[in-house]
Amino acid sequence: MIRIQARTEPSSIMKLVSPILAIALTLIFGCILFSAIGKSPAQALHVLLIAPLADSYNIGEMFVKMGPLLLCAVGLSLCYRANMWNIGAEGQLLAGALGGSAMALYFIDSESALALPITLLAGMVSGMLWSAIPTFLKLRFNSNLILTTIMFNYIALYLLIWAVHGPLRDPQGFGFPESAMFADSTLLPTLFESSRIHLGIVFAIISAFIAWFILSKSHLGFQIRVFGADEPAARYAGFSSKKLSWFVMLFAGALAGLAGISETTGPIGQLVPNVSPGYGYSAIIVAYLGRLHPLGAIIAAMFMAVLYMGGDLAQIEMGIPVAVVSMFQGVLLFFLLACDFFINNRLAFSNQATN
Amino acid sequence: MKLKSLLVSLGLLAGASFAQAEEPLKVGFVYVGPVGDLGWSYEHDMGRKGLEEYFGDKVKTTYVENVPEGADAERVITQLAKAGNDLIFTTSFGFMNPTVKVAKRFPKVKFEHATGYKLSKNLGTYVLRTYEGRYISGVTAGMMTKTNTIGYIGSFPIPEVIRDINAAYMGAKSVNPDVKMKIVWANTWYDPGKETDAANALMDQGVDVMLQHTDSPAPLIAAEKRGLRAIGQASDQSKFAPNAHIFSVRDNWTPYYIKEVQAVMDGTWKSQDFWGGFHDEMLTLASINPNLPKDVRAKIDATYTAIKSGEFKPFTGPIKDNKGNVAVPANHSLTDQELAQVNWYVEGITDEIPH
């Protein structure tokens, strides 16, 4: 008889072994999957996991892809530590892209040095506003944060689509739903010649360190950790749940908003209906892969970015259909999270049937 | 020493030119949807397969499916260019600015973007004269309707769709002076759920023949359920609604892809804005329902022949818009450039273009 038992202490061995075990299981699964469709497993795994880092262009692109994932995941890590189940990073990202881009279009004829900072700020404030509404609804009316944040994702998406079809549409664009290309004064500078790496990744890494500092070095962070671990104890200690909830939600909203405006003023250069291929949702996985640690999120975001790029390369170099690639990616994430389950739980073997 | 290096370089040259003669032309495709969407991306992939069939070993094609129209598009197009593709087709409007950017960085690679309006030395555009098919659809719907009300599901209010709505209405009016057209905007290219809702809303208002500018077969299935009629779009959709289906206006990209690849092989490729329709067999009438009344069938054939031969052009003046202004003067047929900018409804459409 096999049973699942909660461990009294998280297993320190499993903490180290879990990722290795997950990768081993994924490699075995990958070999079976790719052999089954008649592709060389070694080549496929190489293209999926190593080729994305094989040259300087690809490494640059990995950072471009990683930026928005990391910004959203850092904020979410803090929220989840404080038991605030914010599923709304996607909407906050889109709100940031929308609000910030409206500002960028206002500056379309401007060469002012302040144009970019104001645009970025507008993006962050829009993201904060978008997370403030569900937070208010939860704290005031005790509404379900998961549901309201998901619904606000859709509202943000449709607001954005309305805006690119209406007020923010390029007047010279033949009616197509896109804004005009932004002026140079509101474009994020790239870090290297001939690469798309832009300031957004710098923001993301700085934000991860700020979050790490808050969480592990400040009294506020101590309160968040106590809240996550034992809510009654935190209340008994007199910590204000309201204050903490507001803090983590606004922090996450600002970062997600920054992710959105960094996409439109960065690699895209205009407001389009498809700003995000679902970064806000993928960031939930990134946050958990990073074990809700802001610095862990850096590694996790890098890993997810590699996975996404490997998916494109597998199509280009080996003609592997996107459905097979998605299956492989899904299984990899499943194994990673499933193996982490055994950090806090274990299998118990016994001869007696339990009643 | 000198002689030796000369010999070596001669050998290299010979080797290089030999390799060039042997090496297939590499052609890349970027799709916005999955190849299994049975509509837009599916037909582009049929074109790619037709290309391989025609040229055999002389071409090597690669495709990337499901590419989001955001920051990812530029990376995917770049990677196709880096992988040595000589000609790259990007098949959705949202890929326009990313294609422009990549084309600038890879001046030796040829790019072709479907449905856009930006050209450069190594970037051409290509688009279908879908309005030709839409005119015949209108003629047929005008003859088949018993309620004198036909329906049109619009995707997005861009010139292509506005133009086709006009063509359909003018076609219907030419055979049925009492006909009315009802329009619903779905704001999507592909969403079977929304398309079903839109079709039902139209049929609730007395519509008995459905036309649509969205790509899924959902409106045909909805019409089949009510025993009404519908016309398929983009691909042959007869099997989804054997009774309702009148015919499908099918996109056929194969002849165009063959022509362009041949031009690159011959060294005669030039950047241009290409419009293809019945004349080029890039549009075809697929699976015309055998149970149509004889006069309807005869009219379909006659209109098709007239448009295909160039004897009849749907946008020939005098045409008034629905605000009473002259949109096309007498004895003038809209040029391709003018067609690309249609932003008015033809006289008789009692509706406003959404802004």
UniProtKB/TrEMBL annotation, chain A:
The name of this protein is Nucleoside ABC transporter membrane protein
- Whose protein is this, by species? Marinomonas rhizomae
> Membrane topology for this entry?
Multi-pass membrane protein
Q: Identify one Pfam family in the record.
A: BPD_transp_2
Cite the InterPro entries for this sequence: ABC_transp_permease (IPR001851)
Could you name the Gene Ontology cellular component terms for this entry? plasma membrane
* Transmembrane intervals: 12-37, 57-79, 91-108, 114-133, 145-164, 197-215, 244-261, 281-308, 320-343
Q: Where, subcellularly, is it found? A: Cell inner membrane
**According to the lineage, what is the superkingdom?**
Bacteria
Keyword entries, A-Z: Cell membrane, Membrane, Transmembrane, Transmembrane helix
Single GO molecular function: transmembrane transporter activity
UniProtKB/TrEMBL annotation, chain B:
Membrane spanning stretches: none
Residues covered by the ABC transporter substrate-binding protein PnrA-like domain: 26-301
Give the species this sequence originates from: Marinomonas rhizomae
Q: Name one GO cellular component term.
A: plasma membrane
What is this protein's record name? Nucleoside-binding protein
User: Which Pfam family, giving just one, matches this sequence?
Assistant: Bmp
Q: Which UniProt keywords apply?
A: Signal
Instruction: Indicate yes or no for the key word Lipoprotein.
Output: no
Cross-referenced Gene3D superfamilies: 3.40.50.2300
Which InterPro entries does the UniProt entry name for this protein?
ABC-Purine-Binding (IPR052910), Peripla_BP_I (IPR028082), PnrA-like (IPR003760)
Signal sequence region? 1-21
